[in-house]
Amino acid sequence: TKIFVDAEGYADRLERIEHDESHQLIEEFMLAANEAVSQVTREHKLPSLYRVHDKPDIDKLGELRDLLATFQIKTGDLSRRPEVVKLLETLRTHPQGYTLRTQLLRSLKKAVYRASADGHYGLNKKDYTHFTSPIRRYSDLVVHRVFDSYLSKTSKDSEELKRSRSAYSAGQMDSLGEHLSLTETNSQEAERESQKIKLAEFFDRELAKENKTVFKAIVTDIRGQGLFVELTDSMTFGFVQLSALTDDTYSATQDGSALVGRRTKKKI
Q1: Higher pLDDT, 105 or 163
Q2: Which pTM does this prediction carry?
Q3: In the chain, N or C terminus with fewer CB closer than 10 Å?
């Protein structure tokens, strides 16, 4: 979601950005470039950075299976990739698919930078690095330096190539991987916080309007005290307390999957 601001810098418009086919095509080219460079640095044993996404924990997948069962979704062994692909296809048309896909993402590990080429689970690639954005990510700049050093040496004879220094040492790469994984997390949190501030500004103004805007929302979680919702167009989320539901007295079902009105039997 892109947040537009007025002349004073206050958020006054939200716009959902859709990626069309041309954008997706460029993304595929970038993935191919990242994969190709990673393959070269791994095969030539060059000290380099890799974008690594480890396989999910078995326990986390077990918890996900239990959750899916409450929605009458049966799954096989989710540690097998074909079963995950089959699940994603099921969730694509399931009434609670939006929420359950988010739960699937939460059961996966976070991608990190590492000095070893341990593969990328989410992209299903053995070789993967970040190479295509050296002007905005330091990790890509590091890989560019490694690759540039490699290309400058390929014109030399094999003995001189063996004696020449790499752009970085293996120890430096280990340290850089840990550091860049940490700074990536910090920058993502800062970006999310800045977006939250602007979204709060936008909805504060919406509340002040005499004619309130109605937004499409999806219930993402049920609690005894209320429910979490996400506005689908702006991807804004928040908590609605039971006391705000004035048409009936609601309570959570035993399995915690819904709120039911005592008088109307309305189910949320």
Answers
A1: 105
A2: 0.81
A3: N
